[in-house]
Amino acid sequence: MGRIILTGDRPTGKLHLGHYVGSLRNRVLLQNEGNYERMFVFIADVQALTDNADNPEKVRQNIIEVALDYLSCGLDPEKVTLFIQSQIPELHEMTQFFSNLVTVQRLQRNPTVKTEMALRGFNGDGEDDNRRGLPVGFFTYPISQAADICFCKATTVPVGEDQEPMIEQCREIVRSFNGTYKCDVLVEPEILLPENLSCRRLPGTDGKAKMSKSLGNCIYLSDDPKEMEKKVKGMFTDPGHLRVEDPGKVEGNTVFTYLDAFCEPDDFARFWPDYANLDELKDHYRRGGLGDMKCKKFLIQVLNDRLDPIRARRHAYEQDIPAVYEILRKGSEAARAVAAQTLHEMKDAMQINYFDDAALIAEQAAKYRQ
């Protein structure tokens, strides 16, 4: 079997630059390299509902936003299977089977689950108005995610480093299933992290460790140039760099983190020929004599250069929304066919394929003829 990629995003809002450098940009490169037998990219609406069950409209409206972001970034439905998670009912059946192989204690130890629980305020039993009870669906979403990965026997999952505990838990589930049922039906996936360390977790514009819709510190792929410029100009820098002549710190400076993630060698020749490369710019900032606004204006030029083609593609797709839904429908049908085959193999291994098991039927018939 060849190498297969599986990756996706929750439809809780438009995708932002953190998604782009953390995964989306690399997905397009992988798609175009042609080194993988097949590539699946999905919109994880079931997972989004685990903490938005009381607001399904939010999820429903953002399906198209995520799809537009995918297509505008360059994902090609002729090369990639784009699908919606909820349209693959086999995933839910696989999740149930996997849940019998995972303990509550193991889920409680998952660092990603603990972090996400704290972020969403799931820290109570639901009886105290100030503390939200933990939905079972949210608590068990690592199991659901394992089903997402396993249905297509994905060998590679391109994600950010915060998802490493999730991939490891999926690997454990695969080993448990194959070991319990003495088969090799499922495949242990490998994580694929961005090579650029600055891309693994792009900070928010306020300098906080995570870019998050809920924190309001995102630059969205669909932001127009004016909105994006406003956000960059308000971006967190070095709080000790009060005057132009003051020496500045590059480490922890959000502007330079973004330049590390987005800047390319020829950007200086095109936009700021005073410097040969990013290292020279950093050295000047550290010495002092370089203002934050000049650096921000350069970053604005770099980001617009990257985002303008994305904006143009998005505008084109926005003119035919029914066609975008048709792409998702066809992709979901193709993904479901793959999921059905894997589920069939799982049931064979578990020996619950009762109606297909001629030997079992013959054995039981002989038993009751006696």
Which features would summarize this protein structure in a list?
370 residues; mainly alpha; Tyrosyl-Transfer RNA Synthetase; three-stranded parallel sheet; two-stranded parallel ribbon; 17 helices; elongated
So, CATH architecture of the largest domain? 3-Layer(aba) Sandwich
Q: Kindly give the count of domains.
A: 2
Q: How much is the average pLDDT?
A: 92
Count of separate DSSP helical elements: 17
The proportion of strand residues reads 5-15%
Overall morphology: elongated
Kindly state the percentage of residues in helix: 40-55%
Would you identify the CATH H-level superfamily of the largest domain?
HUPs
What is the gist of this entry?
With 370 residues, the chain is mainly α.
Topology:
Layout: E1 4-9, H1 17-33, E2 38-43, H2 45-49, H3 56-73, E3 81-84, H4 90-99, H5 104-108, H6 111-120, E4 122-124, E5 132-133, H7 136-139, H8 141-150, E6 156-158, H9 164-180, E7 190-192, H10 197-200, H11 225-233, H12 254-262, H13 266-271, H14 278-287, H15 292-318, H16 321-350, H17 358-369
Parallel strand pairs: 1-2, 2-3, 4-5, 6-7
Explain this structure to me?
- The protein has 370 residues and is mainly α.
- The chain has two domains: 4-202 and 321-361, HUPs (Rossmann fold, 3-Layer(aba) Sandwich), CATH 3.40.50; 225-316, Tyrosyl-Transfer RNA Synthetase, CATH 1.10.240.10.
- It is built from 17 helices and seven strands.
- It has helices at residues 17-33, 45-49, 56-73, 90-99, 104-108, 111-120, 136-139, 141-150, 164-180, 197-200, 225-233, 254-262, 266-271, 278-287, 292-318, 321-350, 358-369; strands at residues 4-9, 38-43, 81-84, 122-124, 132-133, 156-158, 190-192.
- A three-stranded parallel β-sheet has the order 1-2-3.
- Helix 9 links the parallel strand 6 (156-158) and strand 7 (190-192).
- The longest helix is centred in the C-terminal third of the chain and has 30 residues, at 321-350.
